[in-house]
Each structure stands twice: as structure tokens, then as C-alpha cells.
Amino acid sequence: MKNILITGASRGIGRAIAIELAEEGRELVLTGRDDSKLAETAKLCEEKNAQVLQITADLSNPEKV
């Protein structure tokens, strides 16, 4: 199975997409700027038996990636 990269996974549409794909049992790579909210999303996805890699980063800033 391929990994799926979801940016902005700590809130909003990115979070909703992550949870939806987790319900399908996908392997997810989640990125977002807010570490605590990203951890919440990752936990929700793992509870749905998805494999999750969490990366806190601001992708709009090349120096932070």
C-alpha cells in the first residue's frame, strides 16, 4: 500500500481527510504546524487502525521544512 501525504492535517479539511482515509486503513504521513493538534489527529487516525507518521512543519516556510 502507498503512503498518503496530507498537509494541514492538524485542523480543518486536512484533518477531515486524514480521519476519512484512516477509516479506510490507509498509511498516512500527516504534516501540520501545530504539534499538539497534529498529535490529536494522529491519535484519532491510529485509533482507526491506520499507520501514521507525524511530521510537524510549516511547509509555507522553506527554512522550517
Sum up the structure in keywords.
65 residues, 3 strands, 2 helices, single chain, globular, alpha/beta, three-stranded parallel β-sheet
Detailed description of the structure:
The protein has 2 helices and 3 strands. α1 links the parallel β1 and β2. The chain is 38% helix and 25% strand. The chain is of the alpha/beta class and 65 residues long. It has a 3-stranded parallel β-sheet, covered by helices on one side. 25% of the residues are buried.
In short:
By secondary structure, this protein is of the alpha/beta class. It has a domain of 42 residues. It is built from 2 helices and 3 strands, in the order E-H-E-H-E.
Helix and strand pattern? EHEHE
Radius of gyration: 11 Å
Q: What would the principal axes of the Cα set say about the shape?
A: globular
**Distance from first to last alpha carbon:** 25 Å
Reconstruct the topology from this structure.
Layout: E1 3-6, H1 12-23, E2 27-32, H2 35-47, E3 51-56
Parallel strand pairs: 1-2, 2-3
